[in-house]
Model the fold of this input.
Amino acid sequence: MRKINTSLIEDKIYNMALRAGVSVTPACLDAMNFACEVEGNEAARFALETLVDNAQAAKNENMPVCQDTGLAVVILEIGQEIYLEGKPLKEAVNSGVRRAYSDGYFRKSVCDPLTRKNTGDNTPAVIHTEITEGEKINITFLPKGFGSENMSRLYMLKPAQGVDGIIAAVVETVRLAGSRPCPPVCVGVGIGGSFDTCAFLAKKALTRDVGTANPREDVAEIEREALRRINALNIGCQGFHGDTTALSVACEWAHTHIAGLPVAVNIQCHCVRCEKEVL
Done:
């Protein structure tokens, strides 16, 4: 049995949040650079180049890469051979977020859903925990901006709609979003499970490196075909039309009920900020 004080988790979250606020992931930057190279529309190519320049300047100057520094989403995969000691886990995570958003001068965007009163420190974070094998904790920190989050959708499809229905739902979500989520977007898709499970799967899909394929071939084919159809929409970078409306489509799946086919589509803007650490 390995003992871990939650103060170590707090410090990890603090440092991850500081890095994420000023950095897009290397895989995302690579994808945008490639999109610049192949883009045939002059206006869209200029917009892509500007996004790349912005990302590089933010990291060099240690400044937020986007003014929307996001709702903090934290995924903790905790080995079952670990004993946590110290302050409660939720308190430790929120303390790390609170400190980082203050020290990093990041925008505080969390509020009561009814009164709209801001909490003033960007907490509470959205925390997902999973129990896994072993004596390690895998920590993922994803600051999620809401220009793209607001464009997400959940579908309760009929089983008979099958793969075609899944792809159609993904493409429809991006089409209806248009330029509002600051394309080129990354698209996370959850397939199966229940109403709530597939939404989490869609979020988790966004934590994969941009451009990676699901190891299950039929799921990877859904990713490829959905991406092809999305880029054929000609929305383009920032809505200037062009060849790249999405940088990637990533799908995760779970078993579901015989009577249902839940599909969640979670949209992420071009600004993919995701940090991962192992404790």
